[in-house]
Design a protein that fits this description.
globular, Lyase 2-enoyl-coa Hydratase, Chain  A, domain 2, 10 helices, 6-stranded mixed β-sheet, alpha/beta, 2-enoyl-CoA Hydratase, Chain A, domain 1
């Protein structure tokens, strides 16, 4: 069963995946949960974690595809690796916006050993994060990538010395304190812009900036600055 909890007046949603093999029911539940959270205007940031040693447990011939549900979430998504992330588990984590692991974490994509290639976005997201050459080497060899190497190459963003979920929640609280509409638009501009020319991306950035000028949160941001107080964003 997938567990979902809400904190900070529902601003932060924590999704916890179970320690069992993915099946059709799990995929449907996960899709429904991600879609519901994405449409929830109260939720400003999502934390995705798991009880599985490999983040997600699944047979290698599995046709289940969970990563699109993660990447479709409008709010920023933090992936938390309490142990390791291999195969499909790593592919799902690559669909998150920020990733936090522990110092003993190990990562791999050993799909070729099972006669298949990554099919949850690994062949596309990993090269975009670590570069084409590194991605090819990691997938072709199926070797283990240690936490500090993963940090150096940009596969993860932070190594937690204590509780990775707590550390991720600290990041989530910081993100949740910002304008939620601006955070969502920022995410859209960065990802969409990566598929555009520089000029097209600049135009998209300008368009989104103009849209945000008319929001209540923009007015609140200006007023809070002038009044020297913390802003109280509503997502309007």
């Amino acid at each position: 069963m997938i567990n979902v909890e809400y904190f900070d007046d529902r601003k932060i949603a924590i999704i916890e995946l179970p320690d069992r093999d993915i099946d059709e029911s799990t995929q449907w539940d996960f899709e429904d949960i991600c879609s519901s959270i994405s449409q929830d205007s109260k939720v400003r940031v999502v934390v995705l974690t798991s009880n599985s040693p490999d983040f997600v447990s699944a047979v290698w011939t599995s046709s289940f595809n969970l990563a699109p549900s993660v990447s479709a979430i409008k709010q920023p998504v933090l992936g938390v690796i309490s142990r390791n992330a291999h195969g499909i588990g790593l592919e799902i984590l690559l669909a998150c916006d920020i990733r936090v692991c522990v110092s003993t974490s190990e990562f791999s994509m050993s799909h070729l050993m099972h006669g298949v290639i990554p099919s949850n976005g690994g062949t596309q997201r990993l090269p975009r994060l670590v570069g084409q050459g590194r991605a090819l080497e990691i997938i072709l060899t199926g070797r283990l990538v240690k936490a500090h190497e993963a940090l150096e190459m940009g596969m993860v963003h932070q190594i937690s010395d204590n509780d990775p979920v707590k550390d991720a929640c600290l990041i989530a609280e910081k993100v949740a304190s910002h304008g939620p509409k601006a955070a969502q638009y920022l995410k859209e501009v960065i990802y969409a812009g990566a598929e555009m020319t520089l000029g097209q991306g600049m135009n998209l950035e300008a368009d989104m900036s103009v849209i945000l000028q008319s929001t209540s949160d923009r007015t609140e941001g200006i007023n809070s600055f002038l009044e020297r107080r913390a802003p109280s964003f509503k997502g309007d």
